[in-house]
């Protein structure tokens, strides 16, 4: 990878990182309208297109190496743009290498387990990129803002004392450290939307009939708790941005910029992992050469011995040794080879 590209990506993501150990206060510390000096949307969109090509390349290597996995945790308030971010950032990536899981209100079965159980069940495999659309962080966000959620979790008394949030931060940090130490990198993105932009997006969901399904009156009830959420997010960002799994606050008022930043943070992580295609031993290389010769011998008359090698070498000429093709001699055949 060209160094200047890596450097550009690092420069874009650095201001978004919550430095571990620092105290975050929303909404003052991060501007949802920030655009890193990229004034034109079309420039941002072009950069994102290049970014997704880069991601596709790294994802292929990640899958081939089969050693590391990546978990992307997406958190946002309603209308923050989680779905669109997933759609755009992952466009061009082989769907077989990506696993997206959304987390909603927990089921009875999930409530019958410890609070991290349902998230652990959906972790990515090695070689995969997993995306949590909402994540274990709901356990210190919605559960904190609406304490009735904590009541439903059937915890023993000792586990619901007022220090429950501090304890959960510690447990989450420990869990993420364990995952990181074992080859699973965690990318944590908070899409930071302004209150006014949320209002505008809600109105659009009401005004455009095709978007009505995306809107729920419950979203307005949550909006009424805006300040409580800002406090819960601030405390969560301060307590769980760690050296092994830092938080990135993504300015989300401009969707195109949020998508570009999300792609950049993921790219930065993959560049750091630097996954490599597996090394092929000399012996395997010899075996491949033998199989190659055999496959070349099997070329039908008129066909190039190795069409791929020929086109890679820039040659489109027919093999001069090749005789007239069977097809040419016998005339056009049907799909199944009948005359
Ligand atoms: P959209 O942006 O399309 O509305 P969404 O992620 O908001 O997507 P919804 O089905 O609207 O999906 O909402 C899921 C709801 O589940 C959210 O209100 C969220 O707060 C809630 N939720 C997620 N995890 C938990 C949890 N652990 N306890 C209680 N509620 C939770
Ligand atoms: Mg919703």
Defining key terms:
Rossmann fold; five-stranded parallel β-sheet; binds magnesium ion; binds adenosine-5'-triphosphate; 339 residues; 15 helices; alpha/beta
Structural description of this entry:
This protein is an alpha/beta fold. The chain folds into 2 domains: 3-273, P-loop containing nucleotide triphosphate hydrolases (Rossmann fold, 3-Layer(aba) Sandwich); 282-338, no CATH class. It is built from 15 helices and 5 strands. The protein has helices at 3-13, 41-65, 82-89, 108-111, 117-120, 142-145, 148-151, 164-181, 195-207, 217-223, 226-240, 255-273, 282-297, 307-312, 326-330, and strands at residues 69-76, 98-102, 129-133, 184-192, 247-251. The protein has a 5-stranded parallel beta sheet, with helices on both faces. The longest helix has 25 residues, at 41-65. It starts with a helix and ends in a 9-residue tail after the last helix. Adenosine-5'-triphosphate binds at residues 78, 82-83, 103-106, 134, 138-139, 142-143, 149, 214.
């Amino acid at each position: 990878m060209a160094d200047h590209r890596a450097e550009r990506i690092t420069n874009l993501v650095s201001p978004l990182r919550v430095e571990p150990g620092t105290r975050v206060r929303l909404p003052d510390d991060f501007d949802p309208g920030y655009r890193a000096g990229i004034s034109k949307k079309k420039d941002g969109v072009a950069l994102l297109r290049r970014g997704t090509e880069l991601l596709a390349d790294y994802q292929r290597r990640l899958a081939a190496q089969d050693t590391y996995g990546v978990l992307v945790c997406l958190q946002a308030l309603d209308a923050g743009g989680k779905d669109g971010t997933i759609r755009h950032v992952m466009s061009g990536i082989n769907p077989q290498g990506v696993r997206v899981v959304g987390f909603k209100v927990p089921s009875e079965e999930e409530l019958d387990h410890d609070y991290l159980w349902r998230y652990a069940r959906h972790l990515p495999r090695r070689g995969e990129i997993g995306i949590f659309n909402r994540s274990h962080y709901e356990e210190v966000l919605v559960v904190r803002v609406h304490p009735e959620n904590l009541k439903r979790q059937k915890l023993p008394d000792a586990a619901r004392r007022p220090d429950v949030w501090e304890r959960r931060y510690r447990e989450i940090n420990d869990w993420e450290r364990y995952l990181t130490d074992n080859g699973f990198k965690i990318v944590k993105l908070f899409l930071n939307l302004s209150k006014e932009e949320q209002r505008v997006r809600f109105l659009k969901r009401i005004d455009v009939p095709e978007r009505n399904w995306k809107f729920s009156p419950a979203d307005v009830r949550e909006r009424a708790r805006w300040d409580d959420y800002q406090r819960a997010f601030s405390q969560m960002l301060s307590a769980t941005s760690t050296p092994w799994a830092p938080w990135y606050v993504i300015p989300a008022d401009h969707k195109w910029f949020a998508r570009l930043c999300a792609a950049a943070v993921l790219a930065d992580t993959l560049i750091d992992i630097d996954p490599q295609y597996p090394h092929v031993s000399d012996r395997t290389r010899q075996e491949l050469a033998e199989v190659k010769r055999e496959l070349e011998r099997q070329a039908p008359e008129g066909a190039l011995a190795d069409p791929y090698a020929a086109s890679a070498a820039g040659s489109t000429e027919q093999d001069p040794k090749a005789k007239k093709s069977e097809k040419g001699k016998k005339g056009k055949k049907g799909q199944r080879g009948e005359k």
